[in-house]
Specification:
It contains 3 helices and 9 strands; from the N terminus they run ββαββββαβαββ. It has 142 residues and is α/β, with parallel strands linked by helices. It folds into 2 domains: 34 residues, no CATH class; 85 residues, Nucleotidyltransferase, domain 5 (2-Layer Sandwich), CATH 3.30.420.
């Protein structure tokens, strides 16, 4: 759209600079949102593992890890699952690969719950079950 001057000439308004203030505002808001939500998106379930002397690190993203929380909720990797669907889930996720299954449970979980989960895993055809623990913390001063 041209602007008419009294002399009969038309001039076009030109934009010589792009206003970056709204862009910076949006980027800062997104940065704040990601900073707040990043700690929530951690993989794995928080459980307080019992302590033992021989311990190996387990990465839930690389291995088949089943977790029993303090409230006796069952998780596969970081997804909550139903106890009755455990066998089907293991068969679809692991198949016949022969990979070991890692079971970690909060130290306050009743033994009968752990045994029931181990029994269900074995009934599904998997015999290689590893229990996940954490190392003893030394209470002696150095």
């Amino acid at each position: 759209m041209a602007i008419s001057m009294g002399t009969g000439e038309s001039t076009r308004p030109t934009l010589s600079e792009i206003n970056v203030t709204p862009l910076v505002d949006v980027v800062l808001v997104l940065l704040i949102i990601f900073m707040v939500t990043a700690p929530i998106l951690q993989t794995g379930i928080e459980v307080e593992l019992p302590q033992t002397r021989a311990v190996q690190a387990v990465d839930p993203e690389q291995r088949a890890v089943i977790t029993i929380s303090r409230d006796e909720e069952l998780f596969y990797r970081s997804d909550m699952i139903n106890f009755n669907e455990l066998g089907n889930l293991l068969r679809s996720e692991i198949g016949d690969s022969g990979l070991p299954i890692f079971l970690q449970a909060d130290k306050d979980v009743p033994w009968k719950t752990i045994v029931a989960v181990v029994d269900e895993i074995r009934e599904s055809g998997y015999e290689r079950i590893n229990l996940v623990t954490r190392p003893y913390e030394s209470t002696r001063g150095r």
